[in-house]
Amino acid sequence: MEKPKPTLPDPQPGNLPRWRGFNLLEKFVAGTSGPVPEGPYHERDFEWIANWGFNFVRLPMSYRCWAPGDPVRWTELNERVLKEVDRAVKYGRRHGVHTNLNLHRIPGYCVNPPAEPLNLWTDERALEAAVFHWKHLAERYKGRPNREVSFDLINEPANVDEASYVRVIKALVDAIRSVDPDRLIIADGLQYGTQPVYGLTGMNLGQSTRGYMPMNVSHYQASWVPMSSEWPAPAWPTNWMNVTWNANTLRSFAIEPWRKLQEKGVGVHVGEWGCFNRTPHDVALRWMEDQLKLWKEAGWGWSLWNFRGEFGVLNSGRKDVAYQEYKGQQLDEKMLALLQTY
């Protein structure tokens, strides 16, 4: 007999649920010369996530999985790949897991290399293509309840002023709401998701923050972070950038600015966080626990980067963990137990 599917909360942009879950990366990157998808999402991930007591997945996606990277062809869509996203949303509904769709790479911007050929913040052609893609997604999921699916517009905007960012977000929001007026929409904070955006407070949006500070703990020896291989092995609490970091520091830097945004009627969720596998496991878990306690105190949900992989609970490749075999995967039982606690 199947156990009853949990009832998902009914989210409101001014009061986001304390969703807890993971980022799934099947469409995180694609080929630079055309749509080369990494593969479909796995229903087993949704099943395991739900069985372990979580209710949220964020899907950070590159538009290049279903459209070419050439601006001339930005609006050519690969329906076969988009149907794989449709199936992920269905998996979420089937297993009682909210699915949050995010454009990690959108026409004109991505926080990761390679750079887009045009600039979303300054080039109208890029903005038109970005509007096209979000409007199309809005059409695909029109009528699906917000408790099942939501949109997270642009991953980690950086090197852009607030006015330019707000202008782009407004164009995307207007396009989505022209199709699906009540869709739940979330916008990432500025400066890689770390700073609340007060210029968006009148748009009836939630906002997404991050949980990677301090970087010497979360990204120790991460190959894509300059100089991280030269940092000393981290401890927790730690010293970083001439600041002593502990739970109180995290509260001051990463909680209080967003609590002030909440007071203006904006719901907050931690869209990404986690600790790369080179940080000693005991250090990672102590740091993670302090983050989780603070978010629970604030009433915020969170989404670990990632589920399977170097930051995750499965197949993380840590050298100082005694893994438990779980259905062909290597499970970090201590990390999973910690996440389930908060």
TrEMBL record:
Coiled-coil ranges per UniProt: none
Domain Glycoside hydrolase family: 46-307
Transcription recorded as keyword: no
SUPFAM superfamilies the record matches: (Trans)glycosidases (SSF51445)
Protein's UniProt keywords contain Secreted: no
GO MF annotation list: beta-glucosidase activity; cellulase activity
Protein name stated in the entry: Glycoside hydrolase family protein
Enzyme Commission number(s) from the entry: 3.2.1.4
GO biological process terms, semicolon-separated: cellulose catabolic process
Annotated GO CC locations: cell surface; extracellular region
Species annotation: Fibrisoma limi BUZ 3
Transmembrane segments: none
Domain of life: Bacteria
Pfam families with a match to the protein in the record: Cellulase
InterPro entries: GH, Glyco_hydro_5, Glycosyl_hydrolase_5
Family of the protein in this entry: Belongs to the glycosyl hydrolase 5 (cellulase A) family.
Keywords noted in UniProt: Carbohydrate metabolism, Cellulose degradation, Glycosidase, Hydrolase, Polysaccharide degradation
